[in-house]
Target: Signal recognition particle protein
Amino acid sequence: MAFDSLTEKLQNVFRNLRSKGRLTEDDVKTALREVKMALLEADVNFKVVKSFIKNVQERAVGQDVMNGLNPGQMVIKIVNEELVALMGSETTEIRLEPGKATTVIMMAGLQGAGKTTTTAKLAGKFKLKGKKPLLVACDVYRPAAIQQLQINGEKQGVDVFTMGDKHKPANIAKAALEHAAKNGNNIVILDTAGRLHIDEGMMEELREIKEAVTVHQTILVVDAMTGQDAVNVAKEFNDKIGIDGVIVTKLDGDTRGGAALSIKAVTGCPILYAGMGEKLSDLEQFYPDRMASRILG
Ligand code: GDP
Model:
C-alpha cells in the first residue's frame, strides 16, 4: 500500500506525543528528530527534509503549541499543514486551450515509468469530461509500444493515430495534428519514446517535436518506486526541455513516498495525477491535502 512504511513511522512518533500532557521544547525536538529520520528513510530529498523540519520547528516551539490545550495534536496539525504545503497546497489541473482550440500534450519519461499506460488513462479522464482525445504513437523504437497504445486506446474508446516505426516522431506529430483537425479531436496526446536512462538523443527528439508542433503542455511520467531517482529525472527533464507537470505512477506499490513528497519542492513543477494501479481506471487526480492525510494515516 502507498506510504505504508512512512505512515507507520510517523504514527509511532505521534503516539508518543499524544501520550504526553504538556510538551517541553525537548519533547518537540525529539519528535521532530524522529520525523526527520522517517522522512529521510522514506527517501525524501535531504534539502527538502531540512527545510521542512525547520518550518515545523519554528511553528511548533512557538507559544501556541507550548501553551495549547493539546500540544501533541497541535504539532501533528503543523506537520500535516507543512506536508500539504510541500506538495504544492493546491490541486493543479492540466491547462487546456480555451474555446474550440486543440490542446497538444506531450508525454515524456524514461522507459518503464508507465508513460504509455498513463497516456491511455489520461485519455479516459478527458473523454469523461466530454473531450475527444487523439492518442499519437511517437515511440518508434518499440513496436510493442505502438501496439500497446492501440490496444489501450481501443479499451478506452478513444482514437489512436499511428504511422508505424519508419517515420521521425516530429513528422508523426505534425501529421497527427492534421488528422486531429480533420477528425475533430480537441486534445492530442503524444506518447513519446523513453530510454532506460536520460540520454541526449531522447532530449533532442523531444525538442524536435516541440519545434515541429506547438506543444501546450509537457507532462513527465515518473515511477514513484524509484524514489530520489524519479526526482532527479524530473529535475533533468525540466532543465533540458521544460515540463509543466508530473504524473507519479505506481504509487500503489510505493511504501515510502519520497518522490511524491519531493518533486514539487525540488523542481517547482506540480504533481497532476497519481497512478494507483495497472488498470486504466487507476489514475487519481493529485490532491496535496488528501495525500498528506493518507501519509499521516
Ligand atoms: P512506458 O515504457 O513508460 O510506456 O511504461 P508502460 O506504460 O509500458 O508501463 C510499464 C509497466 O508499469 C506496465 O506493466 C504497467 O502496467 C505498469 N504501470 C504503469 N502505471 C502503473 C501504476 O500506476 N501502478 C502499477 N502498479 N503499475 C503501473
The CA atoms of residues 85 and 103 lie 29 Å apart. The longest strand covers residues 217-223.
